[in-house]
């Protein structure tokens, strides 16, 4: 690892000494039109300049009725196009994540008639993988040049400059005409203001408010440091009905420890899809099927996993029971299609589901039914329907207990962490311009992680996303290994590993909801109560039982661990179904 890092730094140095090593570009016709240019293969470039490509070439998507896959999206008079190839403008070799600096790029080539909204910037600690939108005014008066620029920052006037070169960078903020907004910055290597026709501002009614997303470069990760900071941005409102469109640009500002962020209006805006309600950029059913065939996750279970997934119908048909409060002695069987589950209403504890009572049937149910399992897809228009999120929901009849790791010793957590009915999900974020997978979200109980496509493992040369389900708890991870929840070497184990236990999500799935399509919603989706009973054991007793089996230091360590773990670990409540989760209508958190 260190070795590669040193090589990487050497190459980085080389580039900085010979700044003329630039991209050479070549426009090539391709099925998406000239919107997606390809780069000449013989270019000399930095390791972080190699543009990521999915392992397998993408098919031609089946025809649809709208903009999906065409390379362009009409936002209501403003046509936009997603550019993934760039000209390098300026490199700074320090600051930012891992103190490796960042690189500023201009989209290039830009298709005829389209204009730039702003530059792209990313940290130097990862391969080039990004995009910015460029736009074309199909109506007139939607786009206007700025009336002036102000200099946000330059390395010349800053102590914060390149270690290894005298190149200077200048970050400009366009000043929009009245009634218009700027969407991004221009970056130059000269102190003169850029030409006014370098960039376009957008009429305010086609813009939305944005917020800071993650730190790209600058003085410090928080906005409470004095100096320049560059952040990626995203629409403030994000969800299946939100019209805000990410432009892919960055926000540069001078921050100060005296800043009151809550009160500060940001100098840039994002776009807004005024044609959102027509869903004309969303894939239709045939296109969704083709996308899922391409990227459908392959889920690996731990070799010791005993609690495997099943289809919901199998679980219902194999003895799951519906309980009603104050009639606990008389549970009802559930129709295989869930049609006798109570619909809608608040999650008030009036009903819950549980495993069969009969021991033999219970044993069968908790093991799941991997071979005939089914996953459930929710199709979500995101970022103003410029992306499609495919949320893939997996059901497990049973979530097994946790294992505590106390230094070198593993201690089974008794019943702690066990619960009936476990819903997990993984989400694919796909560009509606071209059907390219951009990000994958791995859910880990109440939280999760987004990874960019280059950081994701793909199955054996295909574009299928590899996912690891943790032993017993089924949290979804991008890598095999051990993740400890807790502190130091004390925590709850989440083990993942490859084994013969595999779920190929593409083999058996059904779409249970889609904002843009008429879908027959299964009755169980509208069941709003919990899929398992409340705590089937007394936490205190359980903790005591484990503690009394431990000696000396372990006892102390265990006590410490119990205090710091969040409630969710104890599985105090059975979980609710997919529709009750915060991310059902909103972005993942
Ligand atoms: C998707 O749209 C295309 C073009 O209109 C149409 O031929 C195809 O049948 C549609 N697919 C579905 C499943 O509706
Ligand atoms: C916040 O904004 C309000 C209204 O613009 C202003 O009156 C107030 O002084 C601001 N507060 C701070 C701490 O900047
Ligand atoms: C569910 O299954 C029952 C029979 O088990 C049937 O009567 C009912 O029509 C089905 N409901 C739906 C919505 O398919
Ligand atoms: C797909 O899932 C359904 C349950 O919803 C099940 O009946 C069927 O056997 C599964 N098919 C395959 C091929 O696994
Ligand atoms: C991987 O791909 C190769 C060639 O396409 C195939 O022969 C092999 O069976 C695949 N392995 C797995 C585990 O899918
Ligand atoms: C580890 O597993 C526990 C129990 O399954 C779960 O609640 C927790 O969220 C997991 N931790 C992480 C960091 O994923
Ligand atoms: C489920 O709920 C949605 C919205 O609440 C409703 O439109 C739909 O008809 C319901 N489906 C069933 C099967 O009850």
In short:
It holds the Pfam family Vps62. This protein is mostly beta strands and 589 residues long.
Walkthrough of the structure:
The chain is mainly beta and 589 residues long. It folds into 2 domains: 2-40 and 284-311 and 373-519 and 535-584, no CATH class; 76-274, no CATH class. The strands form 11 sheets. The chain has a 6-stranded mixed β-sheet. A hairpin with a 3-residue loop joins strand 3 and strand 4. The protein is globular, with a radius of gyration of 26 Å. Bound molecules: 2-acetamido-2-deoxy-beta-D-glucopyranose (NAG) (7 copies). One 2-acetamido-2-deoxy-beta-D-glucopyranose (NAG) binds at residues 343-344, 521, 523, 526.
User: What do the pLDDT scores average to?
Assistant: 85
Question: Radius of gyration from the CA trace?
Answer: 26 Å
Approximately what portion of the residues adopt beta-strand conformation? 25-35%
Total number of helical segments?
Answer: 6
User: Structural class of the secondary elements?
Assistant: mainly beta
Helix content range of the residues, please? 10-25%
Query: Into how many domains do the coordinates divide?
Result: 2
Residue stretches low in confidence (pLDDT < 50, at least 5 long) are 1-47
Lateral arrangement of strands in the main beta sheet: 32-31-30-27-26-38
How many individual β-strands? 38
Spell out which ligands are present.
2-acetamido-2-deoxy-beta-D-glucopyranose
Question: Strand count, sense and closure of the main sheet?
Answer: 6 strands, mixed
- State the shape: globular
Oligomer: single chain
Gap between N and C termini, in Å? 31 Å
């Amino acid at each position: 690892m260190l070795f590669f890092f040193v090589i990487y730094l050497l190459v980085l140095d080389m580039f900085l000494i010979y700044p003329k090593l630039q991209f050479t570009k070549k426009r090539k016709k391709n099925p998406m039109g000239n919107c997606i240019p390809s780069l000449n293969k013989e270019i000399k470039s930095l390791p972080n300049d190699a543009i990521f490509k999915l392992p397998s070439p993408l098919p031609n998507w089946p025809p649809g009725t709208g903009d999906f896959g065409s390379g362009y999206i009409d936002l209501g008079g403003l046509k936009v196009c997603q550019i993934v190839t760039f000209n390098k403008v300026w490199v700074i070799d320090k600051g930012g994540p891992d103190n490796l600096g960042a690189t500023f790029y201009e989209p290039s080539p830009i298709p005829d008639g389209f204009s730039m909204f702003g530059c792209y910037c990313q940290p130097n600690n990862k391969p080039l993988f990004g995009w910015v939108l460029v736009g074309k005014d199909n109506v007139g008066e939607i786009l206007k040049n700025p009336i002036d620029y102000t200099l946000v920052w330059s390395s010349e006037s800053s102590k914060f400059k390149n270690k290894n070169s005298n190149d200077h960078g200048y970050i400009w903020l366009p000043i929009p005409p009245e009634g218009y907004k700027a969407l991004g910055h221009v970056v130059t290597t000269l102190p003169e203001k850029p030409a006014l026709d370098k960039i376009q501002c957008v009429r305010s009614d086609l813009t939305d408010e944005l917020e800071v997303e993650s730190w790209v470069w600058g003085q410090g990760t928080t906005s409470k440091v004095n100096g320049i900071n560059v952040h990626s941005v995203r629409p403030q409102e994000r969800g299946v009905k939100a019209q805000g469109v990410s432009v892919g640009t960055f926000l540069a500002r001078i921050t100060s420890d005296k800043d009151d962020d809550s009160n500060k209006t940001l100098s840039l805006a994002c776009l807004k899809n005024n044609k959102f309600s027509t869903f004309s950029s969303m894939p239709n059913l045939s296109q969704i099927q083709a996308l899922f065939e391409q990227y459908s996750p392959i889920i690996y279970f731990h070799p010791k996993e005993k609690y495997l997934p099943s289809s919901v119908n199998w679980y219902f048909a194999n003895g799951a029971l519906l309980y009603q409060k104050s009639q606990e002695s008389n549970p009802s069987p559930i129709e295989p299609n869930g049609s006798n589950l109570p619909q809608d209403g608040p999650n008030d504890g009036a009903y819950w589901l549980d495993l069969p009572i009969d021991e033999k049937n219970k044993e069968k149910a908790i093991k799941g039914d991997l071979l005939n399992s089914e996953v459930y897809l929710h199709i979500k228009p995101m970022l103003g329907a410029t992306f499609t999120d495919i949320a893939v929901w997996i059901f497990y009849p049973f979530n097994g207990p946790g294992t505590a790791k106390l230094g070198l010793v593993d201690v089974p957590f008794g019943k702690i962490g066990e619960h009936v009915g476990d819903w997990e999900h993984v989400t694919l974020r796909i560009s509606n311009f071209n059907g390219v997978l951009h990000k994958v979200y791995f859910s880990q109980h109440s939280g999760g992680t987004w990874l960019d496509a280059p950081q994701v493992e793909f199955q054996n040369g295909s574009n299928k996303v590899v996912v690891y389900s943790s032993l017993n708890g089924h949290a979804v991870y991008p890598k095999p290994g051990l993740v400890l929840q807790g502190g130091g070497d004390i925590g709850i184990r989440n083990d993942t590993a490859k084994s013969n236990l595999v779920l190929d999500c593409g083999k058996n799935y059904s779409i249970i909801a889609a904002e843009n399509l008429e879908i027959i919603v299964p009755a169980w989706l509208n069941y709003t109560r919990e899929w398992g009973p409340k705590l089937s054991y007394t936490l205190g007793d359980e903790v005591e039982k484990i503690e009394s089996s431990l000696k000396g230091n372990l006892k102390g360590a265990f006590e410490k661990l119990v205090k710091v773990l969040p409630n969710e670990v104890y599985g105090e409540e059975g979980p609710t179904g997919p529709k009750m989760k915060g991310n059902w209508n909103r972005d993942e958190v």
